Amino acid sequence: MITVERYVIDTNSLIFYFYEMFGQEDKISTYARHLITRALSKDSSILISIPSVVFLELYDKWINNEEFARKFYYNIFIPIINAENIEIRSIDREIITHMLELDGEQDFRSTANRWDARLA
After folding, report:
1. 32 near 13, Cβ under 8 Å?
2. 109 confidence band (pLDDT: 50, 70, 90)
């Protein structure tokens, strides 16, 4: 039986993964880049959840012309929705729980620090 590693990524993680498209510096950690790449390449041991609000934020702050909207759609959105191991979903109890889990301990401050360290 395959053990699935579950991760939740935020807007910044997505922007920094596709940093060239957004004209940003490459600020994502090697570890986070590796995880997203594995999920996009059908690695069945990874499941990444992207809260739907991430796409609303990207639309609001980044997609400001038709040319960029087309590039975003074909170069980012289509690969994500076609990836078997990436899901787009609403923020619910399960998503929040996976964001806050830390080896069975639910200490928000230490989880937030570890989360920042993982995806920065």
Report:
1. yes
2. very low
